[in-house]
Write a structure and sequence with these properties.
The complex is a heterodimer of chains A (326) and B (330).
Chain A: E1 5-16, E2 19-31, E3 36-40, H1 47-54, E4 63-72, E5 75-76, H2 82-88, E6 93-96, H3 100-103, H4 110-122, H5 126-139, H6 145-148, H7 158-170, E7 176-180, H8 188-204, E8 208-213, H9 216-222, E9 225-230, E10 233-239, H10 240-245, H11 250-258, H12 298-302, E11 308-311, E12 314-316
Helix pairs in contact in A: 4-5, 4-7, 5-7, 7-8
Chain B: E1 8-23, E2 29-45, E3 49-53, H1 60-67, E4 75-80, E5 83-84, H2 90-97, E6 100-103, H3 117-127, H4 134-147, H5 164-176, E7 182-186, H6 194-211, E8 214-219, H7 222-228, E9 231-236, E10 239-245, H8 246-251, H9 256-264, H10 270-275, E11 316-317, E12 323-324
Parallel strand pairs in B: 3-8, 3-9, 6-7, 7-8
Antiparallel strand pairs in B: 1-2, 1-4, 4-5, 9-10, 10-12, 11-12
Helix pairs in contact in B: 3-4, 3-5, 4-5, 5-6
The chains are: A alpha/beta (326), B alpha/beta (330).
Chain lengths: 326, 330
């Protein structure tokens, strides 16, 4: 079966004061229809730039998608003209951002914003689009949706605003939703509500989801498959259960040992990953994780490891992935 | 863990911090009160870590600032090493402040970008008149940097030359300069990348062991709090709803809010997650301007009873040493 989305050799660079920085470096992955893929990484790993590149939302200048293909429903999104990509955005592929307050227009009512994609993409008259918007607000469990259509974003709480964003994203029943840290700004109980809702509604609509996060717990709860990014590259990708059970990249293993867990052994000290996250402007020639890696050898510092097949659907960009099987 | 030593460093009793809401430009009128902290009592024993958890707006940071007397206390008492400091003015607080220090969340905003690291770390010594001997002063700054894992030659650099984790180390070194007894740490690792958090958490734990420090560790990340704390107080809308030892609280939470908080935190293991029942509570935190009558949590509580809507449950001490404010446990 052909995947819904197929990203091939994507590279995105930014011009900065310190020279050219490759924020996403030769990244490839697939998303199947209805599946949830989590992209995990720390700040500067390239996870958000990857997401923005898919919908061609990279500000140019200073950014530019340098190379690659983004095949969606058999079409290369990078080859579409502006009108072509606009027709995809918010219709076939929708995006949810971390900060609902800065992605919603403060001067427009919620009804107009939720109704806009329906009016725009479905050419529905506004009266009908607003009916649909009220229905969508009910779907994301905003009580009394009809009367709240006339409210402005500042009259909603943080959690409610994120519900509005989800309603907008779902408006045209997209095949793919890209959620970039959708709950990082929210409190834990609200975070759990929003993620559960998002998961339920995407399952109901059989939409696929790319969930971008730094939280290994969130990944464990909601993802089918995981791609771990570091220094602009995917360093490991596997089905979720397999990744947690047998991580085959030293960075993934390091992350898991360094993060305290709600059910962890409190007598055992955390094992931090020494050193600092990589500086994209001066990446080493070999593996980006080599300077912090306990397993690193001379080869890792010079030669860039490709993704090795380390198990069924399991890939690791480490020369020593087999040794890490223990 | 020094839970066996009962000697309290800090005792807070019925602490209230209310902020008036005013309107008008010249003739200001008070139109309401935000009860940010509304009757909080707890004590912290020497050498222990008390975790203070809760969601935004619960009053955990306000509690920390009020204990340090960086905010005015509306009522209640704060006793530090046996001394009631709740009525102290600035001058009388000065020697106390040396013993109680704060570590902030934002390692970018809390360091002066125009000051060298040596001056940032040494500033408390200068302020408290302990810098007259230049050699001793320099040696002390170097020792502080070493203590938090920074190199002596970093002393002449500026904050922007450091990463987030290193800046947080600088903030910790500054807090330690006057050899404090109590450190109040307000979300000290939440702005750091996950791979860096463990470095700083471990540093806090090492320093505590080495220097016998007492911590109040304010955070929203329940996994980090569990790792570092001996006892934990859970706050909701300006009140403590449950206070217990770590094992009591995480193995057998009594208050429905504590239960809801713990259920909301995902565990980094897909197999465990698949088996966990997910009881996610609905609703969001009500406004502290108009907290619900009765138990403040009753509007979201899955176990709320009739009595919860009208009667505010008092904090009750249980035989096993913990305390909980819930009608189910009275």
């Amino acid at each position: 079966m052909t995947p819904l989305l197929s990203v091939r050799n994507l590279s995105t660079r930014f011009r900065t004061e310190r020279g050219m920085v490759r924020a996403v470096d030769n990244v490839s992955f697939d998303v199947a229809a209805g599946e949830t893929l989590a992209i995990v990484g720390e700040s500067g790993s390239g996870k958000s730039v990857t997401a923005l590149s898919i919908l061609r939302l990279i500000p140019d200048p200073p950014g530019r998608i340098e190379a690659g293909e983004i095949l969606f429903d058999g079409k290369d999104l990078l080859k579409l003209d502006d009108a072509g990509i606009r027709a995809i955005r918010g219709d076939r592929i929708a995006m949810i951002f971390q900060e609902p307050m800065s992605s919603l227009n403060p001067a427009l009512t919620v009804g107009l914003q939720v109704g806009e994609p329906i009016n725009l993409h479905r050419k529905t008259v506004w009266a009908k689009a607003l009916d649909k918007a009220a229905e969508l607000l009910g779907k994301v469990r905003i009580p009394d949706g009809r009367s709240r259509l006339n409210s402005y974003p500042h009259q909603y709480s943080g959690g409610m605003r994120q519900r509005v964003m989800i309603a907008m994203a779902l408006a045209c029943q997209p095949r793919l939703i890209i959620a970039d840290e959708p709950t990082t700004a929210l409190d834990v109980t609200v975070q759990a509500q929003i993620l559960a809702l998002l998961k339920e509604l995407t399952r109901e609509a059989n939409s696929a989801m790319i969930l971008i996060t730094h939280d290994l717990g969130v990944v464990a709860r909601y993802a089918d498959r995981v791609a771990v990014m570091y220094g602009g590259r995917i360093v490991e990708t596997a089905p979720a259960r397999q990744l947690y059970k047998t991580p085959r990249h030293p960075y993934t293993r390091g992350l898991m040992a360094s993060v305290p867990r709600l059910d962890g052994d409190t007598d055992r000290p955390l094992v931090p990953i020494e050193g600092q996250p990589p500086d994209l402007a001066s990446l080493p020639p070999g593996c980006p994780f080599a300077p912090r890696c306990k397993e690193a050898t001379e080869r890792c510092r010079i030669e860039r490891p490709p993704l090795f097949e380390s198990g069924p659907n399991h890939f690791s960009a480490c020369f020593y992935h087999e040794r890490l099987a223990a | 863990m020094n839970a066996s030593r009962p000697d309290p460093v800090l005792t807070v009793a019925d602490l209230k911090v209310h902020f008036p809401i005013t309107t008008g430009i010249i003739a200001k009128r008070v139109v309401g009160t935000v009860k940010a902290v509304d009757g909080v009592s707890f004590s912290v024993r020497r050498g222990e870590t008390l975790g203070l958890v809760g969601e935004s707006g619960c009053g955990k940071s306000t509690t920390g600032l009020a204990v340090l007397r960086m905010l005015d206390i509306t009522s209640g008492t704060v006793e530090f090493e046996g001394e009631d400091i709740s009525g102290y003015d600035r001058a009388r607080m000065r020697p106390i402040r040396a013993k109680m220090q704060m570590v902030y969340q934002d390692p970018y905003g809390s360091l002066n970008p125009r000051m060298k690291v040596a001056d940032i770390v040494g500033e408390p010594l200068v302020v408290h008149g302990l810098a007259s001997d230049r050699d001793k002063y320099r040696a002390r700054v170097a020792a502080l940097l070493k203590m938090v894992g920074l190199l002596p030659d970093m002393a002449e650099r500026y904050p922007h030359e450091f990463s987030g984790g290193q800046r947080q180390r600088i903030g910790i070194a500054r807090a330690l300069a006057l050899e404090p007894t109590l450190l109040i740490c307000d979300e000290p690792v939440s702005a750091l990348d996950v791979s860096i958090q463990a470095q700083v958490v471990n540093l806090f734990m090492e320093l505590q062991e080495r220097l016998g420090l007492t911590y109040i560790f304010i955070a929203h990340d329940l996994s980090v709090v569990r790792h570092i704390s001996d006892r934990i107080a859970v706050m909701y809308l300006g009140r403590i709803v449950e206070i217990a030892t770590r094992d009591q609280l995480y193995k057998d939470p009594l208050h429905p809010y504590t239960q809801a908080l713990l259920a909301a935190v995902p565990i980094a293991d897909p197999e465990i997650e698949a088996q966990r029942g997910q009881q996610i509570i609905s609703g969001e935190i009500p406004s502290a301007l108009r907290p619900p009558p009765g138990c403040r949590f009753h509007t979201r509580c899955p176990k709320a009873m009739e009595v919860c809507k009208s009667v505010d449950p008092p904090m009750r001490d249980l035989p096993d040493g913990r305390a909980v404010a819930c009608h189910l446990h009275s």
